Structures are given as C-alpha cells and as structure tokens.
Sequence to fold (147 residues):
Amino acid sequence: MAFSKGSKLYGIVRMKCPRCHEGDLFTNPNPYNLAHFSDMPRRCPVCNQSYEPEPNFFYGAMYVSYGYAVALFVATYIVANSWLGLGLWQTVGALGVVSLVLGPFLFRLSRSTYFHLFVHFDPKSAEIHRAAPTNQRSSSADIATKS
Ligand SMILES: [Zn+2]
Fold:
C-alpha cells in the first residue's frame, strides 16, 4: 500500500521516525504550539535512531522547505487569482495568510521529508532495539544511519 507503515509517504506525512516508522519525530504532536513546534527528541524512543545523525543535519531541510513554499505559492496564486478572481493585493494577502497559517506545519513536513531522504525504513529496527542490551543500543543505531 502506498500509504501504510513502511512507505516513505506514510512516514513523512505522519512525521514518524524514518527508520522504524513508529517513534514520533517531534516531541509535541501539535505544530501550532509555537513555543515547542520545533522540539525533537535526541533519539527515536522506539528504535534509538539518532535524530541528529550529523551536526546541523537539518540545515539541509531548508532546501526542501523552499520547494514546498514555492509549490504552496503557486497553488495559492492559482486559486486566489485565477479561480477566485482576486486582485493583486488580495492575492498577496492570501499568500501571506496561507504562509503564516501553514508555516509551522511546513517546517515540520520539510524536516520529516529531508530526514526520510537519508534514512531508510528498517522493519526490524524496533525489535532489534528492544532485544539489544542497553550498552549496545546507540552503536547499532549509529551504524544504521551511515549505511
Ligand atoms: Zn525509530
């Protein structure tokens, strides 16, 4: 299935750990809790995947964010200007409102997308972590990140 556990789309949209698709990427489930919308645990609570595999890993998510922003602008422009027939400044206003409203969500979606590009689903990762002795957990997760 295209939208079930194990598919990239599922992991990205549900904002799950890219390795096990079970652990949440963000500490707070609500992206509109603005004080904590970008908070992420250091590691996946389910499979122990590091959520910062390299220093400043998520800087690259800015490029993904840019892509989503362009797509959002084009879509908003088409709806506001062509379908609804709004004028220039109303369309600009609509772009501003849509950007503000969807901003925190797109921030998270960009991070999730970027992370899923580099770390791939491993259906056994959650079981391995549960079975592994505590002192071996972090090392096994780090190796999986590099492969
Ligand atoms: Zn995980």
